[in-house]
Design brief:
There is one protein chain. This protein has about 220 residues and is an all-alpha fold. The protein has one domain. Helix content is about 80%, strand content about 0%. Helix 1 runs antiparallel to helix 7, helix 2 runs antiparallel to helix 10 and helix 3 packs antiparallel against helix 8.
């Protein structure tokens, strides 16, 4: 779960940029915290599915229908990540000027800060999150262990998006300069970060899923 959580964290450079932009807006700190809450809320919904809907089914044996379904889901999600990385690779890289955050972020500044909850829930990497859900189910652990695994995944997934908030809280006098440099680096390198990470994680999910299906 730590691995899946960190994968979500480091394959979401766009979410980090969004967080930095939110923090620069009026009521920025509240917007940033609301963004994290929305992110965690989405993971919480997935965790509830694990604990109350799917828990108790036999995912432990590779030969059961639930387990084979979970493995097939992993293969599908891995393929989805590879397709996404291919689309990123094929995307033109020529730019006519400095890169900037998405234009829709400008409109958020004129909205209530609570809207950031919805933004956070939408920007979660659902492909990797669902893959984490599949791993928890296939482990066939007890309900308390499933809850702990979900919490570990949730906390590790917010490492990168929480970092700008930590900077604002503990180094407010330097936060503007630090976050500006982070944003510039993310905008310049987000394509490469996402491309490499999505390809590696997608390939791993496909190999794991195919191995379990063939076993």
């Amino acid at each position: 779960m730590v691995g899946f959580g960190l994968s979500v964290a480091f394959t979401s450079p766009g979410s980090v940029v969004t967080m930095i932009v939110l923090l620069s807006m009026p009521a920025g700190l509240r917007r940033g915290i609301a963004f994290i809450c929305g992110w965690l809320l989405a993971i919480g919904v997935l965790a509830l599915l694990v604990v109350f809907v799917f828990h108790g089914q036999d995912f432990g044996s590779k030969h059961t229908t639930p387990s084979r379904t979970a493995s097939a889901v992993e293969v599908f999600l891995g393929g989805l990540l590879l397709v996404s990385s291919w689309r990123i690779y094929r995307r033109p890289t020529e730019t006519t000027g400095p890169q900037s955050p998405p234009k829709w972020l400008d409109r958020i500044e004129r909205t209530h800060w609570l809207l950031a909850v919805g933004v956070g829930s939408l920007m979660l990497s659902y492909a990797l999150s669902l893959a984490a859900v599949a791993e928890i189910l296939k482990a066939n652990v007890s309900t308390p262990d499933a809850v702990v695994a979900s919490v570990v995944f949730a906390l590790t997934s917010i490492v990168t998006i929480a970092a700008p908030v930590v900077v604002v809280l503990f180094a407010p006098e330097r936060s503007a300069a630090v976050l500006a440099s982070w944003k510039a680096w993310m905008l310049a390198n987000s394509r490469s970060i996402a491309l490499i990470a999505l390809m590696v994680i997608g390939a791993i999910l496909i190999v794991r899923g195919v191995y379990d299906l063939a076993a």
